[in-house]
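Section handout, structural biology tutorial.
Before the tutorial, make sure you can parse a SMILES string by hand: atoms, branches in parentheses, ring closures as digits. In the record below the ligand is pyridoxal-5'-phosphate, and the chain has 375 residues. In the tutorial you will relate the predicted structure tokens back to the input. Do not try to memorize them.
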Amino acid sequence: MIKTNTDFLNERLEERRENGLMRNLVDKGHLVDFCSNDYLGMAQSEAFKQLIDQKLAQYSPARVGATGSRLISGNFAYTEELEQKMAVFHGAETGLIFNSGYDANLGVFASLARRGDTMITDELIHASIIDGVRLTHAKRLRFRHNNLADLEKKLRVAEGNIFVGVESVYSMDGDIAPLAEIADLCDQYNAHLIVDEAHATGVFGAQGEGLVQSEGLQNKVLARIHTFGKALGSHGAVVLGSKALRDYLVNFARSFVYTTALPMHSLIAMEASYELFPTLHQARTHLSNLIRVFQNTMRKTAHYEVLPSPSPIQGVIVPGNAKAKALSQQIEEAGFYVKAILSPTVPAGQERLRICLHAFNTETELDQLIKIINV
Ligand SMILES: Cc1ncc(COP(=O)(O)O)c(C=O)c1O
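Predicted structure of the complex:
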């Protein structure tokens, strides 16, 4: 029996419950997946699993755990060769693996800007970037989502070393940043651009290389963050950039320095993933077809506004927390898993269904889902 008084915890939880915002851990694995980040179906791919098994047998790692942080005992020739392979694939000078995308963003954003510098981010940036920025002593500015004029306004008043942080594909709205224009503005104001490619990796570009590279902007970006837990079907992240950036992060990114490195099993999964996802052309084609079908059908028939999105993340605006929750419940009862995103996570009136499309979803499933939404 725990003796400490936990009333203060229960009070806060009760407040959440009363606001209809209580979070609970759930397992919805039995439902048709219109929710996960497994855009290419890699996490459930037999070919991927077999490739990992094959590599595990080939390398037969001597240890299960990495035994320490990268700077102490957890660094191996294999890790650095893998980072170099990733860098070559993405047209970068170097790569540095982090334990997760969250860790990568925390490390990059918290370490780069110092007192007297300025960190400017899009207002819809992911929580991992918000948390990283919060840890800096730099001046922090936000610009209106994808709004170049507002970004320029912020650049004009920025001081010291200036950093601009954006996502290439936004995790809530599924829309895309005007990267070329943002890069030009950064050039003009001598600012350093950082791009989180979490939701573009594996999905955008002829080989799934992401949007920075497919738009030929790799030399205009200080750092790119690619994560492996979404379309790449495993876990972890790589930060791509110059040799100086890699050396800097090895020295100053606390989420890199003060944590045990990933086990070999995870690294092997990453290597297998990089061998497989560039070849998944059919999966990417099917996925972009589903995206087109969803956008076109919803525009013609929807009771609800659908956000314009060329990515697997689709937002259907269902104003009001109660209404959005009720509709997601109805969808679940029909056997599909779709997440309702409520305020204050999104502004009141912008509550929505966040639908993720995948290469393993069929047109029939999509059709059924659209019908339920539009009843
Ligand atoms: C845009 C973005 N960046 C970073 C992350 C964090 O990545 P990871 O899940 O690998 O920690 C996420 C995932 O939730 C994300 O959506």
